[in-house]
Amino acid sequence: MNIRIFFTVLGLLSALCVWSQQTERRYLSGTGLGDGVTWQFYCSEGRNSGKWSKIEVPSQWELQGFGEYTYGRWYKKKGVKNPSMEEGIYRHTFRVPEDWRGKNIRLWFDGVMTDTDVIVNGVSAGETHRGGFYRFFYDITSLLKYGAANKLEVRVKKHSGNKSVNAAERKADWWLFGGIYRPVWLEAKPQTRIEHIAVDAKMDGEMRLYTELKGVKGKENLTAALHPLGGTDVCSEVRTWEVGHDSVFAHVWKNVEPWTPEKPRLYNLIVTLRNEEGKALHRTSVRVGFRTVDFRPRDGVYLNGTKLVMKGINRHSFHPDGGRTTNKELSIQDALLIKEMNMNAVRSHYPPDEHFLDACDSLGLLYIDELAGWQNAYDTVTGSKLVKEMIARDVNHPCIVLWSNGNEGGWNMATDKLFYRYDPQRRHVIHPWADFDELDTHHYPAYLTGVGRFTNGYKVFMPTEFMHGLYDQGHGAGLEDFWTRYTAHPLFAGGFLWAYSDEAVRRTDCNGILDSEDYNAPDGIVGPYREKEGSFYSVREIWSPIKIKPLQLTPSFNGRFLVENRYLFTNLKECSMRYRVLSYPSPLQSRAEGCTVDSGRVNLPALEPGETGYACIAAWENPEIREKFFSKGDVLELEAIGLDGKSVCTRTYPISFAKSYFEGQLASLKRTGKGCCVNETDSLITLCSDWVDISFRRNDATIYSVLRKKDNRIIPLKDGPLPVGMQMKLVSLSARMEQRGDAVLCVRYRGGADSVVWRLRPDGLLKMDAVLLNRASGGGGFDDAFTDNAILNFGFTFSYPESECTGMRWLGRGPYRVWKNRIPGTNYGIWQKDFNNTVTGESADKLVYPEFKGYHANLYWATIQGKQNAFTVYAATDGVFFRVFTPDEPRGRQDGIRTMPDFPAGDLSFLLDIPAIRSFKPISQHGPQSQPGTIRIKKGDEGLKLELAFDFL
């Protein structure tokens, strides 16, 4: 084979000057959600059936008001024998230009659910296509009228005539739809043409080009030119081969940059077929990334010689207003949101829209491309066709690092070999949830998984589903434990959270409400309209590629702290970090908002991936900076910036501990009073000031009432403190006045609490100082059983009616609520949220996040807002969790089983420990941060203090 290589720019320009023989594409439909073309439509059953009407193409016909909605687990519903089984007929008239005569014309469908028959000008275009997630075509060259109108009829069966297709695709944990839901187009190519190309482009520039050519005589030439995508139009190298009888052509391109998820460098490969005289017969192009993927048994999955750890998520192609009809903009949005969580990989249960793969290629996400088969497989004949269709479309995407043949038993092993036949890169094939071919993908593992598996085994392991995100469970809750354990093992290749978005579809048959089919589909880390749940930020922090090691700021802080480089390919010298020192006022001050005391650059060390070293605040040597840091700052904020200039994580650290912060704020209080007094009756003891009167019951020392005197209004905080996670028995209570004018109520207990001292100051501030867990016997009388054996919640609780609350403003971690095993992702700051009753993942309309109700971490102060009954509470104890009301359980939960741990009695609680939330498995199978607390008290222990202050003015 004669080979000629051209290296001059002029040679390239002359080779590319004629583009008349490009592939031509004309859409008969729109391009996706929000861009449809109207066709004629007839539906056989259900809504708007039995008559001709109009429909937008592409679309799912249920979303257009036709047929019936069905969720894929219909077979689990009592009395349901079949899903909805409508058939649809589409008709459309189109023109073909006269100058297409003599070309090869194909009619392409990017996706139709589920069986498709095509008739052009009254003649069948070919056999029925079965399978709803795949691109397919009909050669209609001989059926067309050129320069004239043509009639197209497409007959679609929602329920396939092939039992294996229905088992693979339509008995599944997702919504079942019908219709032409992806674009339709005509494609014209010359008779002598490049039918298909598959590229194997290695990281070092070596490329093998696998071609399927049609109409060639053996004397043609094939020319390839390479352009950096987004760069200059001029290329420095062209490669030409004589075709002969060859179909595989090789070359080593010089000076190419490899593709990685951190630097997704892409090139446009332009391939031209020429005749003997050099005239262009046909030209096509494909985007390529140069990278080498290989799976090494008992070692790992490698990209460009680097062992991968995939931080992944499972994604459906879905939008509530379109079903599986999406668009390029949505794909880019999803890819960016996934990247924002510091993820680097995606998997789905079927081939996605190609524009999502394009987004993964260009933005840098690894992808596992899966043949559908939720828990049942296609038969061999059907499956073989669909494997070929999937790989023909997707083979050249550099983002794809693994193929998947079905899911959870939905594989036909007879088709495994076809992946290697059609893919010249021979990417590894997995069977998700199985320990198969040296890669263990076990789903929903326990923290201590199994004998001889995962961290106890000797195979590469990568759970393709874990941390199930049903409602508010999973995802970030408990992830840190699992991730720390797994990444410590050399055979760990990554994991994929379930799932990306709630699959709540807009029900056009139910006044447009959103429906997630009860507990089946509300398991996203974002809502159906991509509303961010709390786990979004937890995962973002846990999977941050720039990891700040545990840091506590004390007067010994010298401006340096440890950072770890958790990138796979990037040196930290390519990244940056900045800091801000923030001052946050409380309602005791006249200033309402926080301010920046100081800001600047953090010097990052030049660390290779996996290395740890010290970062340093650049200006720390300046004594003025150090003085402002400690004297004026309340919070240190550190923001890490990736090599693309985007923020990868923001972490905050308290400079002021709770007690010193509160005392500093209290010193600025201008309000005064003349003094306090104590009033006692048979049933009540009342501490009185000029501003408020606080009455306590004698029989249990709980608050009976709070009277604000300026408007003679009762503030409805009462019925506390009641013990949570412990027992306590009242021993005595006594009231007194102190010299400085304070009214004091001293309450002593046996059990978990030793004492609570209430102090009402003349300025109207009420302080509560409690001493807990300082006596091994609890003062006697409990047989040592004065705390719960397993501590879920521990502290005090009060009553306050939800109906009186309109919102909350607070200083502490926020803005999202937390669980014991999902605190990462929240940051110190002043936050505001209005009252809502959001049930995570369950709503008839758009979800409102953050949820209002639940636990809030590291309280400094909080104002419970109301129309007339607002008050503020301050914590002078570090690490207080503030529980605000009790979230509603989802109405659609399975069998009425609670999805959240039990909340304390009452409405507002101040706690030193809170429970974790489970993820698919019971808490006992989660990691250490999810486990209930334990209490051990030894003689001489000083105990714990819980110090609060209430301002009712």
Automatic annotation (TrEMBL):
<dbReference type="GO" id="GO:0030246">
    <property type="term" value="F:carbohydrate binding"/>
</dbReference>
<dbReference type="InterPro" id="IPR014718">
    <property type="entry name" value="GH-type_carb-bd"/>
</dbReference>
<dbReference type="InterPro" id="IPR011013">
    <property type="entry name" value="Gal_mutarotase_sf_dom"/>
</dbReference>
<comment type="similarity">
    <text>Belongs to the glycosyl hydrolase 2 family.</text>
</comment>
<dbReference type="InterPro" id="IPR006104">
    <property type="entry name" value="Glyco_hydro_2_N"/>
</dbReference>
<dbReference type="InterPro" id="IPR006101">
    <property type="entry name" value="Glyco_hydro_2"/>
</dbReference>
<dbReference type="GO" id="GO:0005990">
    <property type="term" value="P:lactose catabolic process"/>
</dbReference>
<dbReference type="InterPro" id="IPR008979">
    <property type="entry name" value="Galactose-bd-like_sf"/>
</dbReference>
<dbReference type="Pfam" id="PF00703">
    <property type="entry name" value="Glyco_hydro_2"/>
</dbReference>
<keyword id="KW-0326">Glycosidase</keyword>
<dbReference type="InterPro" id="IPR023232">
    <property type="entry name" value="Glyco_hydro_2_AS"/>
</dbReference>
<dbReference type="GO" id="GO:0009341">
    <property type="term" value="C:beta-galactosidase complex"/>
</dbReference>
<feature type="domain" description="Glycosyl hydrolases family 2 sugar binding">
    <location>
        <begin position="53"/>
        <end position="190"/>
    </location>
</feature>
<dbReference type="InterPro" id="IPR050347">
    <property type="entry name" value="Bact_Beta-galactosidase"/>
</dbReference>
<comment type="subunit">
    <text>Monomer.</text>
</comment>
<keyword id="KW-0106">Calcium</keyword>
<feature type="domain" description="Glycoside hydrolase family 2 immunoglobulin-like beta-sandwich">
    <location>
        <begin position="195"/>
        <end position="291"/>
    </location>
</feature>
<dbReference type="InterPro" id="IPR006103">
    <property type="entry name" value="Glyco_hydro_2_cat"/>
</dbReference>
<dbReference type="Pfam" id="PF02837">
    <property type="entry name" value="Glyco_hydro_2_N"/>
</dbReference>
<dbReference type="InterPro" id="IPR006102">
    <property type="entry name" value="Ig-like_GH2"/>
</dbReference>
<dbReference type="GO" id="GO:0004565">
    <property type="term" value="F:beta-galactosidase activity"/>
</dbReference>
<dbReference type="InterPro" id="IPR017853">
    <property type="entry name" value="GH"/>
</dbReference>
<dbReference type="InterPro" id="IPR013783">
    <property type="entry name" value="Ig-like_fold"/>
</dbReference>
<feature type="domain" description="Glycoside hydrolase family 2 catalytic">
    <location>
        <begin position="301"/>
        <end position="508"/>
    </location>
</feature>
<keyword id="KW-0378">Hydrolase</keyword>
<dbReference type="Pfam" id="PF02836">
    <property type="entry name" value="Glyco_hydro_2_C"/>
</dbReference>
<dbReference type="InterPro" id="IPR036156">
    <property type="entry name" value="Beta-gal/glucu_dom_sf"/>
</dbReference>
<protein>
    <recommendedName>
        <fullName>beta-galactosidase</fullName>
        <ecNumber>3.2.1.23</ecNumber>
    </recommendedName>
</protein>
